[in-house]
Input
Amino acid sequence: QVQLVESGGGLVQAGGSLRLSCAASGLTFTTYTMCWFRQAPGKEHEFIATINWDGGTTDYSDAVKGRFTISRDNAKNTVYLQMSSLKPEDTAIYSCAARRGIIRRTSREYSYWGQGTQVTVSS
Output
């Protein structure tokens, strides 16, 4: 079955950096658009960044544009989220998701989800 497994979360001070990874299995990775969402306590899933199958097209939320970079390594079936200049408001559970087709920002458009990894940014 399809599995998405995130890693790389943790506690970091404001201004610091983290790199999240999402390893995919059970699917033909090169046919899937990948996306990162985050969810803070009591809030809905928030779109962060998405990347198409070959990495040629990306899209970012205004909240993270210029600070976060999404990338993928199709040889490793892995998508990454490089986060820099982190702020306390970036604190959330970060999840990766997969869908077939073009990039989308809406969580309901994504078929498969990982369990998430916690990112906590201290002030």
